[in-house]
Amino acid sequence: MPILQNNDEIILVLDSQCDNSCVFCQNSRLVHGKNTQQLTHDEPDDINTIKCRIRLAKSLGFRKICFTGNEILNRSSIIDLLVFARKLSFTNITVQTTGRKLKNFVFLKKVVTAGANGFHVPIYGSTAKINDAITNSPGSFVDLMEALNNLSRFDLPVTLNGIFLTQNYADIPSLVRLKIEQFPGMRFMIDHYRPHAASLIFYHFLMPRYTKVIRYFKKAVELYTKRYRYHSDLFIYFARYFLSMPFCIINKIDKEMFRCVILKISRGYLVSVKNKDDSFKYTSRRKVVSCSGCVFNSLCLGPYVHYLKAYGSEEFRPIKGA
Ligand code: SF4
User: Fold this and answer.
1) How far is the CA of 251 from the centre of ligand 1 (A)?
2) Which residues 6+ apart lie within 8 Å of 103 measured at CB?
3) 198 pLDDT band (50/70/90 cuts)?
4) Own/partner long-range contacts of 168-174 (Cβ < 8 Å, ≥24 apart)
5) Residue with the nearest Cα to atom 7 of ligand 1?
6) Closest Cα partner for 191 from 128, 246, 223, 238?
7) Which of 94, 163, 184, 216 could form a disulfide with 118 if both were Cys (CB 3.0 to 4.6 A apart)?
8) Domain residue spans in the chain?
9) Whose Cα sits closest to atom 6 in ligand 1?
10) Ligand 1 pocket, residue 261 CB under 6 Å
């Protein structure tokens, strides 16, 4: 039962059977062979042990808790655990889910009544064709849309988590349009693909060159700022995930966004990005020769080692003045 910490939030990673088999996931069929099912987990952690950990986290001062791990809503004890967390008075009880089970409104109500008051849900494309090719699971997009419409009926924070890959980068502006038009109040982010040890052989297949992605991100930022404006909370949430990229790439996407996130985001956020990357043995970052002449050399994390191996360093050019 890995337990992670994010400021005053405890993140409980519990084993469970997933509904999807995403191409970038270290448990997916892509990694383990196309004829294997998503790895099966048998809920090995005893519920009393999990409750002890939750109680300990509360006594240590954590106010927020996030339940995650494959598809956490498939875990038979999830309702019991949510009720337990609610009774301990955690202020934020978040569920990170594929969302597929939440197409059932009755089940969603049960989850909310038990104690969940926030959701993180992944979305990888604006159409079933693109999304389902990434989740490797036909029907996942239709289920997700039903779930998001159900979630819209509650006044609860919902975050849509995207990730940019070779398979979807050209669709990013359409994905932003879908979010703006259908789910305008939800938070949205598009994260960077972080190579895991188990999926490194697919890095080149999954991670596009930044140079190819930039024009689509430019359009996405244009659409986003037209709807939400720079410096708004929803824009800052969207923009902060760009900080996983080298700064010379963010600067090429949108200079105002770059200034906006650099001004608003503290060094602490970058430290947390770095810690997250360093926690995967194979995903550390490295500066390139030209970084020494860059004004952001001390703040920027530089490119991923595996990116450099795949594409070289020619895209990274020092920024000469802020
Ligand atoms: S040149 Fe190096 S330090 Fe400067 S922004 Fe690019 S990757 Fe970062």
Assistant:
1) 10
2) 143, 144, 146, 147, 150
3) low
4) 168/124, 168/125, 168/130, 168/134, 169/208, 169/212, 169/213, 169/216, 170/216, 171/125, 171/126, 171/127, 171/130, 172/213, 172/216, 172/217, 172/219, 172/220, 173/216, 173/219, 173/220, 173/223, 174/126, 174/127
5) 302
6) 238
7) 94
8) 3-284
9) 248
10) no
Write out the two tokens for 26: 């270290």
CATH topology of domain 3-284: TIM Barrel (3.20.20)
pTM equals 0.87
**Which letter, b or e, does each residue of 241-278 get, where b requires 16 or more Cβ atoms within 10 Å of its Cβ?**
bbbbbbbbbbbbbbeebbebbbeebeeeebeebeeebe
- Whether 10 has a pLDDT exceeding 70, the answer reads yes
Contact of 313 with 289, CB cutoff 8 Å: yes
Residue whose Cα lies nearest atom 1 of ligand 1: it is 318
Side-chain-side CA neighbours of residue 216 (13 Å):
20
Task: Choose from 17-26, 152-161, 195-204, 283-292 the range with maximum mean pLDDT.
Answer: 152-161
Question: Does ligand 1 come within 6 angstroms of the Cβ of 313?
Answer: no
Q: How many CB atoms lie within 10 A of CB 169?
A: 21
- Find the 6 Cα to ligand 1 centroid distance in Å: 26
Closest atom of ligand 1 to 287 CA is 2
Pocket mutation for ligand 1, best pick of 258, 286, 287 (most atoms within 8 Å of C-beta)? 287
Question: Residue 295 CA: which ligand 1 atom is closest?
Answer: 4
CA 225 / ligand 1 centre spacing (Å): 25
Alpha carbons 128 and 305: distance in angstroms, whole number: 33
Q: Is the CB of 301 under 6 A from ligand 1?
A: no
Q: 103 C-alpha vs ligand 1 centroid, how far in Å?
A: 44
What's phi and psi for 28, nearest 5 deg?
Answer: -80, 170
